[in-house]
Amino acid sequence: MDQNAGGLEQEKARRLSAVEALRESGTNPYPYRFDRSHTLGDIRTAHGDIEPGTETEVNVDVAGRIMLKRDQGKLIFATLQDRSDNIQLFVSKAVVGDDAFDAINALDLGDWVGVSGTVMTTRKGELSIKVSSLQLLSKAVRPLPDKWHGLTDTDTRYRQRYADLIGNEESRRMFAVRHAVIASFRRTLHDRGFIEVETPVLHMEAGGAHARPFLTHHNALDMQLYLRIALELHLKRLIVGGMERVFEIGRVFRNEGISTRHNPEFTMMELYQAFADYTDIMDLTELLFVNAAVDATGSSVVTIDDLPVDLSKPWRRVRMVDLVTEATGVTVHPSQPREDLVALAEKHGVKVEKHHGPGKIIEELFEHLCESSLREPTFVTGHPVEISPLAREDRNDPHLTERFELFVGGRELANAYSELNDPVVQRARFEDEQKQKEAGNAEAGTVDEDFLRALEFGMPPTGGLGIGMDRLVMLIGGAASIRDVILFPTLRPEVF
RNA sequence: GCGCCUUUAGCUCAGUCGGUAGAGCAACGGACUUUUAAUCCGCAGGUCCUGGGUUCGAGCCCCAGAGGGCGCACCA
């Protein structure tokens, strides 16, 4: 061993030489498989209530990782962890024999083992497995993080998620919540006749939202492609095709800043329902959220800013123009002269760009003055036409659209419209976007001719919805950062 | 991009006024047949993020840079 090596190198060398010693003695330190009869959770469910000091005749074969070891001379207590639970192993030298006892004593924290034994409880009542034989299933050659604190350094937790998951129960719980939320969405939507589809990630045009895209290149076609920024335009093509109720849960990519609420790749759920409008979609959104919370946590109550909020109560519905009017004390509407709105924005310290029209200025005012105060679930409706190129005009007000964004805890979680299905109006909206793009608005869209061709075949009246799944999991799971709900968040490259 | 904070053993963290680098856990050697983060005795383990600078002397002070966190900006 290199005398100058650090503690980690010494430890790895020791464990690797243990691996070699096992091989020389005829034991494979990395065997191929193991037959498990029960998970540890199964055993706790079936036997969790037996009296202290009980020895049963129940034989079990379990497998997991050694997390803790308490050497007691001629007894060893070890904590075994599998995906479902932890259970104590009780190893007696008198039961397993000297050689097996020494081999078990030589196990390191982090090793995977398969165990045969009987279910028992100790005198103090701890449910345990009395080991009759134990087989190494995989040798860990790198030591585990601190057995009590786990990993706490956020950078290391995100970069080495494997080590985070081994030691941090809270991290495992968060990803269980994530799974439960997504499974709940699928169940709710399948029950209502929606079918799940997959549409392209590689797009010719980065449409369906306002965001800067990632660029890539296809070699064989020698063509520039974009990673999708939204699912919308392909799903609506399927509504044109008569599929009537479709949804997709998929990764989208936006080439923008990273924060506690933004990751460059994130998961969006979008659905489209023929013959529905945005009010139907509000009801469906409430149902999806409540079902997801109940399925993931057993309760429709979530915690927002340390206060409980019951998602099952009806959510506030309020127009964006009314919120801005309330916040400024001045009635606003996109039909007003731009100069009046510019003056109001400046009065409130809101920066106005040259390409901002009245509708965009109202939205800027909303974002700066209203958004962060929307703690309880709120459907903000009636976005100006100017900022909603894919939403249809409000049936009562030609300057607004039938649209809502859902805010919870000051964060946008969902966006929905009565979908624009008039191909002539849609073309005019796209052409307006194209002009803005040429005028220097990098986020403005372009004219998607194929989508327009689809609309020309006739899209039924349709309600559509997009939900940021990561943010929803944050809400239901109680995570402060989006990185806590994404297994491998985007980080700068690590220097090795 | 800007501001504040942060980076010390494998992990979790101390480190005073600028004076030879510390603890707990993990590891290693030993004791222990009912432990629960076992306990007890002993031992080993360091690029103090990197590079400059000031100083007789820098983990500590100064400058520059890197990683990370939070806030702002950006993000309909």
Instruction: Report on the biggest sheet.
Output: 8 strands, mixed
**Helix tally?**
15
- Work out the number of β strands: 20
Structural class: alpha+beta
- Considering DSSP H and I runs of 4 or more, what fraction of the residues is helical? 25-40%
> Over all CA atoms, what is the radius of gyration?
29 Å
Q: What is the 3D shape?
A: elongated
Strand content: 25-35%
Task: Write down the overall mean pLDDT.
Answer: 93
Which blocks of ≥5 consecutive residues have pLDDT under 50? Answer: 1-5
Strand order of the largest sheet: 6-10-11-20-19-18-15-14
Kindly report how far apart the N and C termini lie: 22 Å
Characterise this structure.
There is one protein chain. The chain is of the alpha+beta class and 496 residues long. Helix content is 34%, strand content 26%. It is built from 15 helices and 20 strands. The strands form five sheets. The chain has an eight-stranded mixed beta sheet, with helices on both faces. It has a five-stranded mixed beta barrel with strand order 1-2-3-5-4. The protein has a three-stranded antiparallel beta sheet with strand order 7-9-8, with no helix packed on it. A hairpin with a 5-residue loop joins strand 4 and strand 5 (127-138). Helix 10 crosses helix 12 (358-369) and helix 11 runs parallel beside helix 12 (358-369). The chain is elongated and about 90 Å long. It starts with 6 loop residues before the first helix and ends in a 19-residue tail after the last helix. Residues 1-5 have low confidence and may be disordered. It binds one RNA strand of 76 nucleotides through helix 1, strand 1, strand 2, strand 3 and helix 5.
